[in-house]
Structure formats: C-alpha cells, structure tokens
Write a structure and sequence with these properties.
The protein is mainly beta. Helices cover 14% and strands 36% of the residues. The two termini are 16 Å apart.
C-alpha cells in the first residue's frame, strides 16, 4: 500500500485490518480493527480527518475525502461499494453505500440505511434509520424491512471475512 505522511500526520492502520497494496492513504486517516480496504481505494486525509470504524469496508476504486477541518466517518460495519465517493460526511453504522454512489459534505446517513448504486446524496442530507435512498438527487423511497437489513448484514459479513482471508492468504505472484 502507499501510505503517506502529510504535514507530520501519518495514517494509522489496525494490524487486524486489510489494506490492499494498491490502496493510497494520505495524512489523517484511521483504519480500524477488521476493516477491508480494496485495490485502488484512495483515502485523502489532507484537508480533514478520515475514520473507518471497526469492521467497515471500502471496496475497489472508492474515494474518501473531505473539506477543510471536516471529519469523514464510516461507522462500524459501514459497507462502501465499488467506485463510491464519500466526501465530508458521516456514514452510519451498518449502512450500505451502493456502487458508484456519491455522498456529499455534511450529510448524515442514519444506521442500517442503504444508498442505491449511482445515487447522489446532496450536501447536508439527513435521513431516518433504515432508509432506502435512491436517485440523483437521492430521496428516501421507503423504510427497509428486517429481511432487507439482514441481507445487508450478510453482505457486510462477507467483507469482514474477506479481510481475514486476505491477511492470511493474499500474496503477490
């Protein structure tokens, strides 16, 4: 992985987290226990702070950044799909962000919500727990059922297990 000290601040990575060798971490970035960071992911902690809480995942080609002085937080078991952009916001516990979705500054995505693929969550957006957000701009289309939340948890669990598998079994060849 490419890890860069920026203005005296170095990323911190839990020993139990997996960060792919082709990911880039710059400055004020914290990757918690059991996290997964995929190839091509970029976490730029140069303007603001970035926190990945335990067991969250950031898949291939995601960008995480923020504005000056912001905190961009992916809470515990947050699940960020391929190519998503997370910018200066808080992604709540057990939230799934779909592939190529964008979540903008000062948004607060409540726990157990799902943001659909290619959705655009505008700056300052706030939602209730277990919301399904779709569209560009994103809007709440319904509250998720217990069954839908369970499927999301199962998908996240696969990435928690993948982090462990990669730590023990991924080797360049």
């Amino acid at each position: 992985m490419a890890v860069y000290l920026f203005e005296g601040v170095k990323p911190t990575i839990s020993p139990s987290a997996f960060v792919h060798p082709m990911a880039v971490l710059i400055g004020d970035v914290s990757v918690g226990d059991g996290c997964y960071v995929g190839p091509g992911a970029c976490l730029r902690g140069d303007f603001g702070r970035i926190v990945m809480e335990p067991e969250s995942n950031l898949q291939d080609n995601c960008v995480v950044h923020g504005t000056v002085g912001s905190s961009t937080v992916i809470r515990r078991r947050g699940h960020i799909g391929h190519g998503a952009v997370i910018h200066g916001c808080v992604v709540g516990e057990e939230v799934l962000v779909g592939m190529n979705a964008v979540v903008m500054d000062d948004s607060m995505i409540a726990e157990r919500s799902i943001i659909g693929s290619c959705a655009l969550v505008k700056a300052g957006f706030v939602c209730e727990p277990a919301s399904l957000l779709l569209g560009a701009p994103a809007r709440v289309v319904k509250i998720l059922s217990d069954g839908e939340i369970m499927k999301q948890r199962e998908a996240t669990q696969r990435y928690i297990e993948l982090a462990k598998r990669c730590l023990s079994g991924l080797r360049a060849c």
